[in-house]
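Quick one: structure tokens for this chain, please?
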Amino acid sequence: MKRHSKNDMALISVKDVSIGYGTNSILDGISFEVNEGDYLSILGENGSGKTTLLKTMIGLSRPIKGTVSFGDGLRKDGIGYLPQQTLIQRDFPASVREIVLSGFQGRLKKRLFYSNEERSSVEEIMQKLGISEISRKSFRDLSGGQQQRVLLARALTATGKILIMDEPVSGLDPRVTEEFYELVEDLHREGITIIMISHDVKNAVRYSTHVLDIGRSVFFGTTDEFLREEGREEQ
């Protein structure tokens, strides 16, 4: 049985949005809402526009047309964002604690140092995600699964409401992938709304409450509705 939203308050509303590059659209007329408590999986082939849509939702890209709006007091700087990791990022020489703390950089403004409250928050988040014991290690020396936990912790410094992730399990082995999904599900149970791009249909339908599938046509609905569509079965 898939869970539904805790209430009907829309955190993000996407209305008749077309996305692309310049005036060349790759996806047209997308409309959907993400409510508090949802776990939305965005599926689709490479090049279908998933990442561009995600960047449009958080204000990193502008839509060709249509609108993206926030509700329930949500602001852009209150969204935890975990983008796809690049090879350069994987080799970053900073410590785990420094990486997680850097999530607060946008709030420093004219301050030179992090506050005691911010440092305490980082310790709590690292404890929650099981990375306290490696807090002094260099990010570049960690395994892929450990690095993703660290970047997830960094994203959590921005939010108590919503996490948006772009292929967070890409390149991870099956055991570490399962551990990451369970970690995200724990956060979801604690009340954080989840939006995740994934190629992993099996786990998408296992954990999500809603699915946005971008293919020849666009499907948006509950996971149960997605599974009832012709030719789709839970694996």
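The radius of gyration is 18 Å.
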